[in-house]
Structure formats: C-alpha cells, structure tokens
C-alpha cells in the first residue's frame, strides 16, 4: 500500500522569491537582493501553521494533552486559524479568544475549521484576551498551549524556517526581517541563523505609536512574550500603519505578492536596510495572505 502525505506534511518548505520591481533597481546597484519567504503557501495560510502543529504534537508527546481535550488560546488571528486547522487534524475541541475588531475573514476561517470563538472588547486588545484565556484555564475549562510562553513555538522555526532560509540562500543570507507579534518566528530563526553565522543581522519590525497593524505588536513590559530573547534581535525598526498598508497594495500590484499588512511592514524595513547596505541578501517574512484582510478596506474594492 502506498503511503501518501497528509495535510500536516504540507507545512513548511515554502518558496523564497526575489522582488523584481519594488526597490529592485536600487538594490541591484548596491549589490543587494531582497527576498520574500512566502509563508502564505502553508495549508492554513500563514507562518503560524508551523508552531501550531509543533505545540500540539510536542504536548501530546509529553502526555500533557490527548485527542478529545479542549484547547484554549488567545489569538489575533493567524495562530488561531492555524490551531483550528491543527485541532481539526488531530481531533481536539478548539476555543479561540480574539478581540472583536479583527477581520471577519479570520473569524469565518476559524469557524470553518470547527473552532469555537469568544470575542472580547476592542478596548481590551490582546491583553484582555490573554487574561481571559488564563481565567478559563483556572476554571478548569481547558488547556492553554500559550503561544507567548511555549518554547515549541520558536522551536518550530529553529528546526524548520531557519534551516530552510540557510539552504535556500546557500548560506548567503545577511539580514533577516520579521514582524514581531508572539516573537516566535524571529526568536527561533535568529537562534538557528546565528549558530550558522553570528554576523547575520536580525531585524524586528514594530508599529509606531498609534499604528494598528495586525500581526505586529509592541507589548507592554508585563505582557512581553516569555519566549522573546532580546539578545537575539539586533535592531528594532518602527513602521507606520500607512506605510505598511501602502506597501501591501504595492506588493500585490507590482510584484504579484498578495500578502498581509504585517508582511508588508517587514518589506518596508527590508527596503530601508537595502538603502544603507551593500552586497546584502535581505530576507523578509511574507507571513500570510492578503485575502485575510479584504474586509478591512486596505485593498480597493
């Protein structure tokens, strides 16, 4: 009998593509190349597919959860969608808590995978959602995998995303740019790349004051993800909401890359790096797909 791959086997090994128009001429003149890692090609449409499956698989291996259990998670969207998919694959009840102002496409996708949603007030942001998840666990209503403190989140990028980037660039990567939300991607990739070459620069994209960019957060100190290791990030660059949204439209129109707003924010930072560096191989994470944001009005109707 033939052994065929499952949907779980389709996670990872995503393409790495060069920008051909946006900043390409200026980059080439300086000997630079800007590359986007297309994480929207994962089955549930984002980079979060990697840690979602990793967190459930490792928790099962440790005997902390078993199929049929209830999992609870606070999410701004992509992790929730990925966990909903992973729960469907592995047979768990999934309860997701998210602020009410996040895009309707995300909520609908989570429900399509069979997850149950609890919407929290916009005014409370992700902090309120995280507190509610902790309260529900203390009431015995389920188990929280906790993407913000779970070492299996960055581990998935240390074992997957990082090695892929090293191989895909032939070890030539000089700069890695990632939006910072849970910080799992930037932490795990940085740890791997710096073991290979300590001179690789790791740059985090964060929102300017007042900007609301889905997937990019500047956390208050008391909510800073426990998995975050500041020593692994060489530079923080702040991005405005307007710049990120404008770049999202440009990426779609000029490159054919239909990515989300945080992905575009990382691209803005990659462009800035290219303007100051020479002979650089700059990679940014296209962490999800743009169709997840159509109802937000970022893309013209």
What does this entry look like structurally?
By secondary structure, the chain is an alpha/beta fold. It has two domains: 7-46 and 159-286, Rossmann fold, CATH 3.40.50.1100; 48-144, Rossmann fold. 39% of the residues lie in helices and 17% in strands. It is built from nine helices and ten strands. The chain has helices spanning 24-29, 49-61, 78-90, 104-112, 125-138, 152-168, 184-196, 241-255, 261-276, and strands spanning 16-18, 33-38, 70-74, 93-99, 116-120, 143-144, 175-179, 201-207, 235-239, 281-286. It has a six-stranded mixed beta sheet. Strands 5-4-3-6 form a four-stranded parallel beta sheet, with helices on both faces. Strand 3 (70-74), helix 3 (78-90) and strand 4 form a beta-alpha-beta unit. Helix 2 (49-61) packs across helix 3 and helix 2 (49-61) crosses helix 6. The model has no long low-confidence stretch (mean pLDDT 94).
Strand proportion: 15-25%
Q: What's the mean pLDDT score? A: 94
> What CATH architecture of the largest domain would you give?
3-Layer(aba) Sandwich
Q: Are there runs of 5+ residues with pLDDT below 50, and where?
A: none
Indicate the radius of gyration in whole angstroms.
18 Å
Structural class: alpha/beta
Assign the CATH topology of the largest domain: Rossmann fold
Report on the biggest sheet: 6 strands, mixed
